[in-house]
Amino acid sequence: MNVKQLAAEKAVEHIEHGMTVGLGTGTTAYFAIQRIAARVKEGLGIRAVASSMHSEELARQLGIPIAPFAAIEGIDVTIDGADEVDEALNLIKGGGGALLREKILAANSAKFIVIVDESKLVRKLGTFPLPVEVIPFAYELTRRQVQALGCEPTLRTVDGKTFVTDNGNFILDCAFPVIDNPADLSGKLHLIPGVAEHGLFVKMTDTVIIGSGDGTTRYL
Ligand SMILES: O=C[C@H](O)[C@H](O)[C@H](O)COP(=O)(O)O
């Protein structure tokens, strides 16, 4: 079995009848959504909210009940992937551009489970360029302010066109040498007008489930 699928299916074991479930985004979260759908078909009664239009569409197609956000008071468990996980379980997320909605779900979840393969584990964050979501207005100026924090920000494009998030914003992929203090950088980024959100998830993770090539999973 694919290592991402291994981690995803182990995580779905944490979902119980009656729960409100947050659906992540990305190639690892995809396997979790597939497994949740299979359990729903077997009779598991849950409702879900999604961290991207893509995941919501997938969930609907697979028959997972989607709740409007206005109808929920909180989320019992959210299962999502990550681009990097450090030793303190801080994350870089947003490789797929879904970081803002993902962070809202994570922040409102009683339990936030991160599913990865071994390649995502790092001692310190920063090898993966940090995605920073910025509003399009005057984004060149916002880019300069982000750059002044010590990185090289690149406007994300796909097929030669500027990538636009589900929220209508742009993404700056920010190459930092290494991120020694994620909490400090998180605070500094939040102070820049024009930054909608960034992909550092500091002290938000409850559990990391890692799928390994030998067919086993382990927890951090
Ligand atoms: O915006 C995308 C999300 O943060 C993803 O969860 C993250 O990029 C990991 O994706 P994948 O599981 O495809 O490596």
From TrEMBL:
Active-site residues per Swiss-Prot or TrEMBL entry: 102
UniProt superkingdom: Bacteria
TM regions (residue ranges): none
Record keywords, A-Z: Isomerase
Residues noted as binding substrate in the record, renumbered to the chain: 25-28, 80-83, 93-96, 120
Reactions it catalyzes: aldehydo-D-ribose 5-phosphate = D-ribulose 5-phosphate
Family: Belongs to the ribose 5-phosphate isomerase family.
Subunit structure: Homodimer.
NCBIfam families given in the database record: PRK00702.1, rpiA
Protein name: Ribose-5-phosphate isomerase A
Organism: Paenibacillus rhizovicinus
